[in-house]
Amino acid sequence: MDGYDDAMVKAEEVEAKVRLVMESQQGKELRDRVAVAKDEAAAALETAASKQRWTQTAGSSIRQLFKLVDFINNQALYQQPGNFDAPVNL
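Above: the chain sequence. Below: its structure as tokens.
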């Protein structure tokens, strides 16, 4: 747009660009590319959200596993051999 650099765009320029996008073959191609980009962006966001959910779930599972290992190690250190009737708190 000519007036873009001057911070003043005339109504005729805006109208011409809107008509270009809405009515021309070039505008159709542009709209098609934007639609594809929109779909790709949505898929990328879904993939990122899925990875984030997986990371949170895996992180929680790993923390639980470490707690279990600590518990087993503590039981091995402080329990008398064969004393498996003691209460267990995870």
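Residues 3 and 37 are 28 Å apart (CA to CA).
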